[in-house]
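User: I'm new to structure prediction. If I give you an amino acid sequence, what do you actually give back? Let's try with this one:
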Amino acid sequence: MVRKIGSGEHHVLCLHGWFGSAEGWGFWPEVADQAHYTWWFPEMRGYGERKSETGAFTMKEYAADALVLADAEGIDRFSILGHSMGGKAGAALLAQAGPERVRALAGISPVPPPPTQLDADGEKLFFGAPERDENRRAIIDFTTGGRYGAGWLDDMVAFSRQASTVAAFTGAVHSWVRDDYLADVGNPQVPVAVIVGEHDPALSAEVMRQSWLQFCANAELIELAACGHYAMYEVPVVLATVVERFLADK
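Assistant: Good question. You get back a string of structure tokens that encode the predicted 3D arrangement of the chain. For your 250 residues, that looks like this:
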């Protein structure tokens, strides 16, 4: 079963983040333009309806599976929308599919293609998250600027726990932190938008300037006010607007 929303001519493959799943896009799908776009939500192995599946749990595998979906559905050309680790998987998908198939790439707080540099505390926090809910909660709280109440944070942790296996969650973090896809991506000429929240200190506008904007020739940075790492939950209407404006003429 594949989650699909809309019936528009412009197909978009939406790659979920580490704490997400095909169903983990917050309120944004409810307000997305379904007349002009068809939004597809591939599931990473070990997540959601694919929890029983095994694999390498890497961003390259995630991208390859999304490309299999596009081929199976007869989608010749498409854009990519990736959240967080889905941004790194989106870069891998661009490298695999090539510019002849990819119309544009939009990342929401996207992890860059090179390895992510973490200090000792960061390594302990992120690599401890598969087994420890308190780590998951601390990550969500930190990346949204410590601005939200306990109820939402606890719900996000609970969703992430039930939406993925420990093996998949573990493999995913090792891949998005350790893997280096920069050489695979090269210097893409397709339009790229990196969308960040002003309250996300981990994947901030400055991080985007030092990464994505350095190696993407046709990239633009969009910073959203009043949100952190999870724009699809925090400011869904604003997110829908900026994504659709970016994709409109691609």
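You can read the tokens as a compact description of the fold. Here is one thing that stands out. Residues 3-247 form a domain with the Rossmann fold fold (CATH 3.40.50.1820).
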